[in-house]
From TrEMBL:
It comes from the Bacteria. It holds the Pfam family ArsA_ATPase. SUPFAM superfamilies: P-loop containing nucleoside triphosphate hydrolases. Residues 24-298 form the ArsA/GET3 Anion-transporting ATPase-like domain. The lineage of its organism: Bacteria, Bacillati, Actinomycetota, Actinomycetes, Propionibacteriales. Gene3D superfamilies: P-loop containing nucleotide triphosphate hydrolases (3.40.50.300). This is ArsA family ATPase.
Length: 383
């Protein structure tokens, strides 16, 4: 009696996702080293060559996106990608998040020139905007919001593809508004700003003792810099919060699609499961999973066991048999393919509702548009 074939996971229809004009934002997330930046670029290029007006925003500080698209350098300004097939009428721009410049733009856009100058020149602001934990993720949300607002206003783009940072921090931008709010609403920050907010009589003896102690720990100048910064920023904080909340709502909207990228390895798929669960818990619209760099199947039905048996027989008569060596290589490849298939099936068993697509590993590193097209084609041609 023939065993009934188990149904596989639902297939992620990449072209349907890219062609859907209701899809305005695609967010690619995943752990480091799984080809997430390349996948983002491949999706963006395929969408552009299917008629979409696309901008791809990378938050990954690595320069792979610029190299693969033939651009010398990416910055906070979208740069056109040349070589995109114009037949479908689409276009593609690429950019990389400049965290500090984006923060500066927010301040300049929301404050008066005098207030903005005061903030931008403050030493504590300079440190915060360049390296404070969570600033990158918050500014990623800010830049995404800016791009979306501009796209709606002048029609420059109809699709934004976001390449997030590697590792689990890729989802930290979901927490960024709350973390920034907690920081600016924190007891210590409110304590520091209290003297500047009220009349001198409100500066109680207890508060004076605390700020004096903080001055000794932080240094008097640093304490004054923090107080000046928080006081100046306080008038903008409501705007910061509102903008972040709007962008968070945008990420939950029907026009957004999250694509989790993983490699066919245990650790990467474990991380992918974390991303899927987190997105589900936060009611984020999950489009599906892309398993990148999968080993292509062998072009013969010869099993690993049969190949090894044949190789052993050949070696019994000739220890240097080239055919035996080739059979062993075939067996090794088949086992790798079987192992990857098992890992994908195990993920599908625990997440049966998550559609998936598989991109075959390229023969060499992707460094140009042709390589990106090949990945896009591989993702779209799912069986």
């Amino acid at each position: 009696m023939t065993a009934r074939r188990r149904p596989g996971p639902p297939v992620l229809d990449v072209d349907a996702l890219l062609d859907d004009r209701g899809t305005e934002i695609i967010v690619c997330c995943g752990s480091g080293g799984v080809g997430k930046t390349t996948t983002s670029a491949a999706l963006a290029l395929r969408a552009a060559e299917r008629g979409r007006k696309v901008v791809v925003l990378t938050i990954d500080p690595a320069r792979r996106l610029a190299q693969s698209m033939g651009i010398e350098q990416l910055d906070n300004t979208p740069r056109p990608v040349t070589g995109v097939d114009p037949a479908a009428g689409g276009s593609l721009d690429a950019m990389m998040l400049d965290m500090k410049r984006t923060f500066d733009e927010v301040v300049e856009g929301q404050a008066s020139p005098e207030k903005a100058k005061q903030i931008l020149e403050n030493p504590f602001y300079i440190a915060l905007s360049s390296s404070f934990a969570g600033t990158q993720e918050y500014m990623a949300m800010e830049k995404l919001g800016q791009l979306h607002r501009e796209a709606l206003t002048d029609g420059t783009y109809d699709l934004i593809v976001v390449d997030t940072p590697p590792s689990r921090s890729a989802l930290d931008f979901l927490d960024a508004p709350e973390r920034l709010s907690s920081f600016l609403d924190g007891r210590l920050i409110r304590l520091l700003v209290a003297p500047a907010r009220g009349p001198a009589r409100l500066m109680t003896a207890g508060l004076s003792v605390v700020t004096s102690a903080l001055g000794k720990i932080l240094g008097g100048q640093m304490l004054r810099d923090v107080q000046t910064f928080v006081t100046a920023l306080d008038t903008l904080f409501g705007s910061f919060r509102q903008r972040a909340e709007k962008t968070f709502a945008l990420l939950q909207a029907d026009g957004t699609a999250f694509v989790v990228v993983a490699a066919p390895e245990p650790d990467a798929l474990r991380e992918a499961a974390y991303f899927v669960d987190r997105l589900t818990d936060d009611d984020m619209p999950l489009a599906g999973l892309v398993v990148n760099r999968a080993s292509p199947p062998a072009r013969t039905d010869l099993s690993a066991e049969a190949a090894i048996t044949a190789a052993e027989r050949l070696r019994a008569g000739d220890s240097s048999s080239l055919t035996a060596g080739l059979l062993q290589l075939h067996a090794d490849r088949v086992r790798i393919v079987e192992r990857e298939q098992h890992l994908r099936e195990r993920f599908a068993a625990s997440h049966p509702q998550v559609p998936s697509a598989v991109a075959a590993a390229m023969a060499s590193d992707v460094h140009d548009l042709e390589g990106l097209r090949a990945i896009g084609t591989s993702l779209a041609e799912q069986r």
